[in-house]
Write a structure and sequence with these properties.
Shape: elongated
Order of helices and strands: HHHHHHHHHHHHHH
Largest sheet: none
Distance between the termini: 80 Å
Helix content: 40-55%
CATH superfamily of one domain: Ankyrin repeat-containing domain
Number of strands: 0
CATH architecture of one domain: Alpha Horseshoe
Structural class: mainly alpha
CATH class of one domain: Mainly Alpha
Radius of gyration: 23 Å
Number of helices: 14
């Protein structure tokens, strides 16, 4: 009888187990699990109780909730059904470092991939949680792991010079390219990220690297600037905050803001070109 009642979906598909986890009710959670409630309950969005516990703001409560779920038979690496993230992914994204350490001591796979192949340290990058990433790297997480799109963290949007310094200190390869053959300079230039572009040039990333279309970072930026100019010439069909560039993974961005960022990036790249282009 208890099993049927406790596993019945309530609000948004959440069972009593979910609600106990979300409200930090450790004793209630253990009581329900002893009476047959499923520790692997998922809500309508596919989020599991284990991931919700890992996100809890109070680390002592989070660890107690996680302990109860693992004692009930869940694996520490149980992925959710939303995007395949484990509890370690969730803790990293929300910078729950004490929880991360506890999960790692319980055997969590440090480089487990979600459905897109993103590891917990990549989730830390997505959440801009530098200290969480530093903890994972200190535990042996791969600084050069690739997701299913072929991107390492250095090649992902959101990787600033501060992040790049951390990754470089843990063995990241600066000359890696993505699935399109683009290196760090290509991607920084196409985002108009002058600080990252300057950092990559200082570190010796190759400005002559060709992508799969045979374009150097300078070529790719000049093409992007040409397309921005074409868009700006037709304001009747494309306003200044349109999703220009979103198809390439670099947008949306404001066209008025893009042009000066691109111009300064162009000057930087031209100064680092071999031969006549450097004099332009």
């Amino acid at each position: 009888m208890w099993t049927k009642v406790l596993n019945r979906p309530l609000v948004q598909g959440q069972s009593a187990v979910h609600l106990a986890v979300m409200t930090g009710q450790v004793r209630a959670l253990r009581w329900m699990l002893r009476r047959g409630a499923s520790p692997d309950d998922r809500d309508l969005d596919g989020f599991g109780a284990l991931n919700c516990a890992a996100m809890h703001e109070d680390s002592v409560t989070a660890i107690a909730l996680l302990g109860a779920l693992l004692d009930a038979g869940l694996s520490v690496d149980t992925p959710d059904a939303h995007d395949g993230a484990t509890a370690l992914h969730s803790a990293a994204f929300f910078d729950r470092r004490e929880v991360m350490g506890w999960l790692l001591k319980r055997g969590a796979t440090i480089d487990a991939g979600d459905e897109a192949g993103r590891t917990p340290v990549m989730h830390a990058l997505a959440g801009d949680k530098l200290q969480a990433a530093a903890l994972l790297l200190a535990w042996g997480a791969k600084a050069d792991a690739r997701d299913h799109f072929g991107d390492t963290m250095l090649l992902q949007t959101g990787c600033t010079a501060e992040w790049a310094d951390l990754l470089l200190a843990h063995g990241a390869d600066l000359q890696r390219v993505d699935g399109e053959g683009r290196n760090l300079l290509h991607l920084a230039a196409l985002r108009g990220d002058k600080a990252m572009l300057r950092w990559a040039l200082k570190q010796g990333v190759d400005p002559t690297q060709l992508d799969i279309d045979g374009m150097t970072p300078l070529d790719a930026l000049e093409m992007e600037m040409f397309e921005v100019g074409m868009a700006q010439s037709d304001r009747s069909r494309l306003d200044t905050t349109a999703d220009f560039g979103a198809g390439d993974g670099f947008g949306p961005y404001d066209l008025d803001e893009a042009e000066p960022a691109f111009e300064s990036s162009l000057m930087l790249l031209r100064r680092h070109q071999p031969g006549p282009v450097a004099q332009a």
